[in-house]
Design a protein that fits this description.
Layout lengths: L4 H4 L5 E5 L3 H13 L3 E5 L2 H9 L6 E5 L1 E2 L2 E2 H12 L3 E5 L4 H9 L5 E3 L4 H49 L3 H14 L4 H16 L4
Parallel strand pairs: 1-2, 1-3, 3-6, 6-7
Antiparallel strand pairs: 4-5
Helix pairs in contact: 6-7, 6-8
């Protein structure tokens, strides 16, 4: 079989397969391993959560929608909330309501049984790519917010310097930067200290 993108770059892909049908669990896990994936299995919601509590961190979970000992959709929500774990659903049911519910809680794919591993691979690979894109987007969002917070603090501190020294904006910013270099501090940290000091001075007037 042609290597997956994950195999080409030498990164092992770990899957968590959860299904209460042990025959399905055994058959699919064996076939997926032959496709190059590392597969952990659980036949219940309880067992799946226990594996994760013990430190298992798969790249993707494949969850049966309806299990005798737990609801796959509930498990999916739990995995998202606790571990930010991407998932796809596996089910013998393809009714619109179930598919839509899975999509609403963030499923990156929906596979209908009976299915073989070869047909699962494109959905798995697509879900892995989408999960990577979403993780990168989340990181960029955090970095952007941090940058915005830094800019906001520095802007306020520049205003304080302008008022205290009667300087223009560029001169005040340069003075603030020089002060940060002299003190060997990050510009944002110095700005935050200046803001706190200014707020403390105003405190008695409140």
């Amino acid at each position: 079989m042609k290597p997956h993108s994950s195999e080409v770059i030498g990164v092992p892909v770990h899957l968590l397969l959860v299904d209460d049908d042990r025959l399905v669990l055994s058959t699919l896990s064996h076939a997926l391993r032959r496709c190059g994936y590392q597969v952990a299995t659980a036949d219940s919601m309880t067992d799946a959560l226990a594996l994760l509590a013990d430190g298992l961190r798969p790249n993707l979970a494949i969850l049966d929608v309806r299990m005798n000992n737990g609801n796959g959709l509930e498990l999916a929500q739990c995995l998202c909330a606790r571990y930010q774990l991407p998932f796809i659903m596996l089910s013998a049911y393809s009714d619109t309501e179930t598919v839509q519910e899975a999509a609403n809680i963030g499923a990156l794919g929906y596979l209908v049984k009976p299915i073989n591993a070869a047909k699962m691979v494109p959905t798995i690979e697509s879900a892995l790519r989408r999960a990577s894109e979403l993780q990168e987007l989340a990181k960029n969002t955090v970095h952007l917010q941090q940058a915005l917070d830094t800019d906001r603090d520095v802007d306020v501190a520049v205003g304080i310097v302008m008022a205290q020294h009667r300087l223009g904006r560029l001169a005040a910013l340069e003075l603030l930067r020089q002060s940060a270099r002299t003190q060997q501090r990050k510009l944002r940290d110095l700005a935050q200290d200046m803001i706190r000091a200014a707020e403390a001075v105003r405190q008695p007037d409140r």
